[in-house]
Amino acid sequence: MRIFFSLIKKESIENIRTKKMLGLLLLFIFIGLISPLTAKLTPQILQAIATDGIDIKANTPTEIDSWVQFFKNVNQIGMFGLVILFSTQVTNEIQKGTLINLLSKGLPRYQVIISKCFFNAIMWILSYCICFLIAFGYTKYFFSNKFPIENILLAVLLPLIFGIFLIALEILGSVITENVIGTLLFVAGAVVIQFTLSLKEEIVKYMPIALLVKPINIIKGIGFNDYFIPIFTTFGLIIICIISSIIVLNKKEMS
Q1: Residues of the domain holding 211
Q2: Contact assessment for residue 175 and residue 249, using Cβ atoms and an 8 Å cutoff
Q3: C-beta of residue 205 within 8 angstroms of C-beta of residue 133
Q4: Contact present, 59 and 164 (Cβ < 8 Å)
Q5: How many domains, in total, are found in the chain?
Q6: pLDDT in the model for residue 49
Q7: What pLDDT, in 10s, does the model give residues 167-225?
């Protein structure tokens, strides 16, 4: 455990030095702020840009509109930022020789993978929770929260799990390709394949991408049971990605 915590400390120092931790926090603070504000101001913006003779009718924004914006921003801006910020985690250490120096001193390779997965997941969970709390607070301020908090928490849990899957997938891509472009293409390819397969409803219900499909329905109290299978599938794939990363790293020759 001493080695593990030393690696976590190293990851913390490195992420603070490169400002990745700050970047991720600022990105999700922004998403937490902009989501309810977008829902609140959209009707006013539409009225402001309406030209003479054109009457734009916009429905009065509600709490649901705020959460729709939240999930949209997290699934698009948030996930994209998460992948970009973490794309250099392993590749930089391999290319700069930092990882080689650590392994030459007898550091178990599996601890490198596990410590990176653990630290990245903690960073992601922390940033995402702050984002949610900001969005929740402003949604309550602008619209009040009429839906049960347990429904909201269950809905918010789904993108959180998918984000952990992306982290594990990205570390596997980093170990396999050893370069940033290859890592990004690896993750993008996996996501594109899921989107392609998701065109068939009988397949999408088994895939991680299903966690991003209409979580707003859970807030309305509809169909959380439909997500049990993709949740278990996603956790299974997370474990597979971590084990595969360890196996690939163990077989690599570091010199």
Answers
A1: 2-251
A2: yes
A3: no
A4: no
A5: 1
A6: 66
A7: 999 999 999 988 899 999 999 999 999 888 877 777 888 899 999 988 888 998 887 88
- Note if the pTM is more than 0.85: yes
Q: In terms of DSSP H, where are the helices of the chain?
A: 2-17, 20-49, 63-73, 79-86, 91-96, 98-104, 109-143, 149-177, 180-197, 201-204, 216-219, 228-251
Amino acid at 216: I
Core vs surface per residue 130-168: b (16+ CB within 10 A) or e: bbbebbbebbeebbeeebeeebbebbbbbbbbbbbbbbb
Cα→Cα distances 142→5, 90, 154, 226, Å: 43, 42, 22, 31
- Please report, as a single letter, which amino acid is at residue 40: K
Tokens of residue 80, six digits: 């994209």
For the chain, report the end-to-end CA distance as a whole number of angstroms: 27
